[in-house]
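worker-03 picked up job from queue 'complexes'. Input manifest follows; two sequence lines, order preserved.
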Amino acid sequence: MHAIADAFVLAIKMIFTGDPEVYAITARTLEISLSSILIGALLFVPLGCLIYFNNFWGKRTLISIIQTCYSLPTVFVGLLVFLVFSRAGPLGVFGIMFTPQVMVIGQIILIGPIVTGLTISALSGVSPAMRETAISLGASRLQSVWAVLREARFAVLTAIMVGFGRAISEVGLALMVGGNIRGYTRVLTTAISLETGKGEIALSLALGFILVALALIVTVLANRFLRVKEADVAQSRAPTS
Amino acid sequence: MLKVEHLHHSYGKAEILKGIDFGVRQGELFVTIGPTGSGKTTLLRLVGLLEKPTSGCIYFDGYQVNNSEGQRLEIRRRMAMVSQKPAVFNASVYDNVAYGLRIRKERGASLHSRVTNALEIVGLLGYEKRNARTLSGGETQRVAIARAVVIEPELLLLDEPTANLDPISTSHIEKLITDVIKKSNMTVVMSTHDLFQGQRLASRMGVLMGGQMLQTGDPREIFNLPRGRDIAEFVGVENIVAGVIASAAEGIVDIKVDGNAIEAVSSLGVGGEVYACIRPEEITLAKVKEPTSARNIFNGEITRIVLFGPLARIELDCGFPLVALITKRSAEEMSLQTGNRLYASFKATGVHVIGK
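worker-03 finished. Artifact:
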């Protein structure tokens, strides 16, 4: 208990005294995970739509595979990315091993199934009548998909948040392909792993608190963003007449 | 405006529509009536281009609708559909009504005035900011109608717009249809299983049963001159008596029914097996046999009296069952009771004869 309290105090101290290294690590963590989730969302939300709105042979199987990949081990993805991007690998020529870029690529692969799968679930939650309504009012195919996506916005945002959670909290992949290079690819999770190994429990705990706080802030901001967009509807739940 | 030819549609092995032909003229309110499951919704979905028919053609404004998505979208944008259980977007009433205009790139003051106008028409001014999901069934239906009429479609499709509503909401929607939509230049195709609603609203009707359009015509024609036994039953002809034409002269026939003879106007010949259809409101009841011009007078015993609203439904056994509809007041004045014997009379012209 004592150690946790100490760590909490240390964390506060580190945040408010502006420890440059902690700031740098935190900024890098955010930069990498936010890039992953932004690119991931841009790729996988449309992919989810594409799968959901089209009928093709093997669709059910594909969805099952995607769902299985929710629990893809991070070290396994790390290994694959390592094999592909290491000097001898097929994409070794890019020379991006042990850079933040390759960490983003790895995280995108990691969150792909989650964002795709949960987007499909989110869309299935919308009544098919919604899309037909849009079409019967003159929507084109794309416009009707957009209408359904808007109906599913809360669930789609959840999909993205879960993806972000996985990206920011994973450590196996970041270690394997990022290399935990100080001042370059060191992120909160790899730093925690390292400091714990060195016996710096208090520092590890402090970094852990920052990590949790970060996730919390991003979640709150995302919800706030959605709430603002909903403002006109939300306040109208009380009858106006 | 709209023409449908040999329309067939199947879901898997189930053939829902079996060759539908009908046309709707510009500005007309065409009502398809038929029992639940007769294919009304499917027909509207095909006409609304939400689905492609298994075979057959749809012509819209002279153009044959083909399979190209581009053309279908272009034509679909000239119509709007309101479904039986309208789905509203999880957004404000205003945004729901504005949807069709926004996807047509309408913006700014013109969008605002059109949406406001549509809300005023359906009586939902002041509801702009309400979430459409929080509305009652009748209000939701009004949002759906506003959302459809705001785009000023050339063809408006209404699929049983009052099927799930209480009587007050129903009359509200009907008033909307007669007062606003009928007065505009919109062509409307509407379906209902409520034949009286069809009668109240339609300029022309079509009877859809078992996937076939059995009869089209103006409402009076369909109610008074149903072309088949099924239609007669559906449009509320309660007395459908099977018989054989025993004699025919100068357009008057005698139909033999279980030892009785019903006189009717028909051009059918002797020996023809027919149904004599007599609307219950055409039958006059009397306690004593009075001189009358009615050619058919039968003595029968009351088997049942059912009161509903201001009316009384009297079931008689005249050797064949006969149902008469009179006012409750006259049933009371005559102090009718089960077991009483009465004279039931109706004119030969009140009998509609259908060949078997």
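worker-03 released lock.
The longest strand of chain B covers residues 296-308.
The interface with chain A takes residues 48, 50, 69, 73, 76-77, 80-81, 83, 85-92, 95, 99-100, 103-104, 126-131, 134, 147-148, 151, 157 of chain B (CB under 8 Å).
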